[in-house]
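=== Discrete structure encoding ===
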Amino acid sequence: MRVTDRYLDTPDGALAAAGYVARLRRAGSEVDLDVKSMAAERRGALHRREELSGRAGEETDPRCWPPGPAHDFLLERIGDRSLAERFTVRQRRRERTLTGEGAEIALSVDRVEVLHGSRAARFAQLEAELRDGDEAVLERLAAELTRYAWLRPEARSKYEIACTLLGVTAAPPTPAAMAVRVLFVCTGNSARSQMAEALLDQLGGGRFEAASAGTHPKGVNPLTVRVLAEIGIDWSAARSKSVEEFLGRPVDHVVTVCDQAREACPVFPGARAMLHWSLEDPAAAGGAEEERLAVFRRIRDEIAGRVRELVEAQPTSSSASRPKWSEG
């Protein structure tokens, strides 16, 4: 099956700023409208989102499309603004439906071509979408599929992948004056603080500017890179940094993630809060590689829980005051 998708937004990026994507899909002679939320939660190869669908037309003026839930929702978000095409995605799709264990899953192999002006990019993706049933069935299928060496977890949507390949932003960046600047500090800046920085980048919804540093930096641990890759984060280009690089820079929150760094961390006069997370050092784990990886995964998941709490504590409205977190 051949499918052509056109992704739309207002000239000022109002939809993406609100966390949504509008897509016109032509399959055969019909044109459908899909309004999707950006991924609200990501775990490994999985992401969860909301989606509304309806009918549309070839023109980009939604006021000419048939009314319906997706159409009405879109108009509520854009008001009297116009829509413009961001880029086009062409797909050759092979799809089958899997049923079992009380679930229905659409499994597709997509060969994708992304077009934006004179630029083009291509990639292939195996996608599984839960249409009905228990999410645990989808998680088991994802775990089974990622055992194959030629498959890797990918929690980004096609829209996000296309934006990355084309070098365009998935959503307008949060103004620097609005972004909450968080510095994670540990001793070596090799594992815990690196994971925290990567996870806040992934889970922060563009509302945070994350960085990490060490009081005695010693290089990024390869197992840190591996366990982050397992959840769809490419951290291969990361480097260890000294806290001295950040002295004099504006920082809103400083989070120490090991007890030694808490004692040795310098003072950041402009910081609104100094937080401390007492986390086990995965780099100190002994045993075989699989045993050490298990420790790194456990600490990664513990940090992810802490990061989610931090994100949830920050108001989403840019006009809201910044939160004051207690030390803990």
